[in-house]
Write a structure and sequence with these properties.
Number of strands of chain A: 4
Number of strands of chain B: 0
Number of helices of chain A: 3
Strand content of chain B: under 5%
Helix content of chain B: over 70%
Helix content of chain A: 40-55%
Strand content of chain A: 25-35%
Largest sheet of chain A: 4 strands, mixed
CATH topology of chain A: Glutaredoxin
Number of domains of chain B: 2
CATH superfamily of chain A: Glutaredoxin
Distance between the termini of chain B: 31 Å
Oligomer: heterodimer
Largest interface: A-B, 23 and 31 residues
Order of helices and strands of chain A: EHEHEEH
């Protein structure tokens, strides 16, 4: 079970990343759980200074961009 | 450097569209075609180059550099590194907390927060393309000085008690990630980012250059000098105020302003206007309200606004 966390305070790009990440997880056919992290203190705690950012099980993978679905699949499956 | 572009613009205007060389329409269309192509080439090239540099300097890396500096050189570095960091209103809060909660002084953080939106690559490219290298540098240097001085003043005022909405005493770790990546990835990131910016700004650029070309061709020379010349004291404050709500439209505003300058608006007034467009933004003001009391926001806006107006008056005075 993978916890896919999208960090962002509710900007348009955060919504896009959320949808793209969910889409990538579906295509991978894995068990996952989506989570939105919009609390500013929590985001800062995780070391993220640019949103949107993506974390898997609490570990931040990237910040400040929206990768392609292909790249997201690699990141989520852990091959990258 | 842009000779082939001029030849292409001439060919399109006079041969393809069949407009006369010395007609008003011919002049305006030629101006539009040439400037549009030139600006898009410049935008694509510069944004791509800056984006590649950025992959080496994510905010966590920048924070690490600033943390190592003494207080004064911290301001110089923060403003300088702010220039190459892209500014997005929605990232303002995490960035602010990420700086303040790792121990970067409030004033130094403000130097960064002022420079980052004010001196951005889109504004610089537009200024370079529409006004030339001298004005673009003038803008960048004035913006840098305003960022450093605003930060120094805010630092001196000891305003930490005006922060709210988060635990200031709490310290967070300086976690760094994302600096090591292969070149292919840096390039693909830069390409992604460049396309993203171009997709956002292209309508503004076209409309801005379009109206600019119309003014260039149809409005008489020095038409605006009567109302906005260097001797009009109210021009600079008025330009600053009008610039505030135009945030994020630097791409469309600059070609317009370039045409207006040609028709008699003084240079200092123009600079103040453009700095207000990029440096003072209402959305940023509203979002920063979540971490600071309104009083601090007004102090911040007041100091930066005063710096912008001072720059405007100074250039109007010097150039007169």
């Amino acid at each position: 079970m993978k916890r896919i966390q999208v960090l962002g305070m509710g900007c348009a790009k955060c919504g896009k990343l959320y949808a793209a990440a969910e889409c990538a997880a579906k295509e991978l056919g894995i068990e996952y759980e989506m989570q939105k992290i919009a609390d500013m203190s929590k985001i800062a705690d995780m070391g993220v200074m640019m949103t949107p950012a993506l974390a898997i099980n609490g570990a931040v993978k990237f910040a400040g961009r929206i990768p392609s679905t292909e790249e997201l699949k690699k990141i989520i499956s852990g091959t990258k | 450097m842009f000779k082939p572009v001029q030849l292409l613009a001439d060919w399109l205007t006079y041969a393809v569209f069949g407009l006369g060389q010395n007609t008003l329409a011919g002049g305006a269309v030629n101006f539009f075609v040439f400037d549009t192509i030139k600006i898009f080439i410049l935008l694509a090239g510069i944004i791509f180059a800056v984006s590649v540099i950025r992959t080496f300097l994510p905010p966590s890396k920048i924070r690490e550099i600033i943390l190592k500096k003494s207080r004064f050189s911290g301001h110089l570095w923060a403003a300088g590194l702010g220039i190459i960091t892209p500014f997005c209103t929605c990232s303002a809060i995490p960035l602010f907390l990420g700086f303040v909660q790792t121990g970067i002084p409030l004033g130094v953080t403000f130097s960064f927060l002022v420079a980052s939106p004010m001196i951005n690559e889109v504004a610089l490219v537009m200024l370079f393309g529409m006004f030339g290298v001298k004005i673009a540098l003038l803008y960048a240097v004035s913006g840098y000085i305003i960022a450093v001085i605003s930060g120094l003043i805010i630092g001196k005022l000891d305003l930490e008690h005006l922060l709210e909405g988060f635990d200031l005493s709490k310290r967070i770790q300086n976690v760094a990630f994302g600096t090591d990546m292969p070149w292919a990835e840096r390039f693909s990131f830069a390409r992604e980012y460049t396309l993203d910016i171009l997709k956002t700004v292209w309508p503004y650029v076209l409309i801005g250059i379009g109206i600019g070309a119309w003014i260039h061709g149809y409005v008489p020379e020095n038409f605006l000098a009567r109302w906005a010349g260097a001797d009009k004291w109210y021009a600079v404050p008025l330009a600053t105020l009008v610039g505030i709500p135009l945030y994020s439209n630097a791409a469309g505003v600059i070609p317009l302003v370039s045409a207006l300058t040609e028709k008699g608006v003084a240079l200092g007034t123009t600079l103040a206007f453009m700095m207000a467009v990029t440096g003072l933004s209402l959305p940023e003001f509203l979002i920063l309200r979540r971490v600071m009391k309104i009083k601090l926001l007004f102090i911040f806006f007041g100091i930066v606004g005063a710096g912008i107006m001072f720059t405007g008056f100074l250039f109007n005075y010097v150039m007169k």
